[in-house]
Amino acid sequence: MRRVIALAVLLCAMSAAPVLAQVPQSQAEVTLSFAPVVKQTTPAVVNVYAKTVVQSRNSGLPGLFDDPFFRQFFGDGGSLGRPRERVANSLGSGVIVDDGGYIVTNNHVIKGATDIRVALADAREFEARLLMADPRTDLAVLKIDAGEEKLPTLALADSDQLEVGDLVLAIGNPFGVGQTVTSGIVSALARTDVGISDYQFFIQTDAAINPGNSGGALVDMRGRLVGINTAIFSRSGGSIGIGFSIPSNMVKTVVTSAETGKPIQRPWIGAELQDVTPDIAESLGFARPEGALVADLHADSPLIKAGVQRGDVIVAIDGKAVETAKQLNYRVATAQVGQQAIIEYRRKGATREVPVTLITAPETTERATTTLGGQSPMTGLVVANLSPAVADELGLDSGATGVAVTDITGPAQRFFRKGDIVEQVNGVEIDSVATLQATLDQADGRWSIAINRGGRTLSLRIR
């Protein structure tokens, strides 16, 4: 990769001379091509076809028969609004990462799928089994059975070695036209405001990525997987040169869990973090905004045992710089439980380093997971008592307490979302699942419900 770039420009490292274009000196230089890398990598990139059965109603009044109070009088709508099943098809891409048939793709490609098929580059098709789906990273791992055949694979690179300006290829099946290769460069690293998954740390590239490329490969000039293409920024639905990929180091953690058959174990540091703004940087005497400010610590946080305190600013982990809170969360998520990480932080102008043993989020209270029944706006909610473990799974602050919505079935999805914290029902403070159930049992048909969603309190009143 570096040799190809050197042929295009003449750099004078020892002087301030301008960079000049270099005229190709040979036929070999004129015919430089990505073809060798393409031939090496494309056999390991597959097409993923997912079928999902969805319920639809033909009432002419969208959403009417999803209203639980309407259904009290009209049931399921009779012939007017009888649910009808239809099959929705989605198209994506995937990457073979193990010659035994393990394939990584995006979770949003196969979400809710009842049937998944994979087509190899040589046009053979296989039924695929879903081994692991991880919405928090938007990654999923599939398995196909090719018998004794060793399938072509892509090796996972260390995505931390990528640099802005590196050449990359994006491989996938855009718009279902067939396997397509596009080229570009790494436009930026550590993008944290994309809003695709819980762990914001994306590779940005100008290699063209379009619908159907989701789950496809971003490869370097050595033919290694550096990222899984996941999303684009677009006003038209097509590529405008701003695409995002999940780094291979995050992919590695999910694939490893799927291959071992064990649930993903994510390290937990039990800290509420915030970015260092210019104002905060100035107040702390920093030359520039950097790091993750420790706003609060859970009583069981391993940082406390290491001597880290509220108000400290973490600026690096294992020698890797931390610019924002989301970057720190990513670095922790790609580490291993039980590993000893070296945390570098600043306090009152001094920089310190301490070893921190990474642990999983603890279960400090019984979950008491319950599906709410009866006749109320909360019917169908799956709720649980909050602990650091539950909060971590839902992407909530580690110090969150009370009762959280862990899943939703039925009409309650009109009012609630996964991760909502139930604060109050009919004037009663909700501190446990038992309190919530007792309060619902005593209700008289009038409802005043307060929930915390993303730090904001929302109220629902039904008379």
Word description of this protein:
The chain is α+β, with helices and mostly antiparallel strands and about 475 residues long. Helices cover about 20% and strands about 35% of the residues. The chain has a seven-stranded antiparallel β-sheet with strand order 7-6-3-4-5-9-8. Strands 22, 23, 24, 25, 26, 27 and 28 form a seven-stranded antiparallel β-sheet that branches. Strand 18 (about 315) and strand 19 form a beta hairpin. The longest helix has 13 residues, at about 250-260.
Task: Offer a concise description of the structure.
The protein is of the alpha+beta class and 463 residues long. The chain has helices spanning 2-8, 27-30, 35-41, 68-74, 78-81, 107-110, 248-260, 278-284, 302-306, 325-333, 388-394, 433-441; strands at residues 9-10, 20-21, 45-57, 83-98, 102-106, 115-119, 125-127, 129-134, 139-143, 167-172, 180-191, 202-205, 217-219, 225-232, 243-247, 271-275, 292-297, 313-317, 320-321, 340-347, 350-357, 370-371, 381-385, 403-408, 421-425, 428-429, 447-453, 456-462. The strands form five sheets. It has a seven-stranded antiparallel sheet. Strands 22, 23, 24, 25, 26, 27 and 28 form a seven-stranded antiparallel sheet that branches.
